[in-house]
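Format notes (please read before filing issues)

Several people have asked whether sequences and structure tokens are stored in separate files. They are not. Every record keeps both together, in the order shown below: the sequence lines, then the token lines. Line labels are part of the format and must not be stripped during preprocessing.
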Amino acid sequence: ECSICLCEYIVGSDLVYSSNPQCDHVFHAECIEQWIMKQRDGPLCPCCRRDFV
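Then the structure lines:
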């Protein structure tokens, strides 16, 4: 499930994986895009606070 919206992933969902090998979290594309746009400190993972991109 997406840790941002808490909805299950379904087949065909647009998912985004971190390009940082130290972060293995996955989110719905729309959820993580909105999250990153609100961040002042750069694109950090909402779960582990590591660089997401």
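For reference, the curators noted about this record: DSSP finds one helix and two strands in the chain. The CA atoms of residues 41 and 51 lie 10 Å apart.
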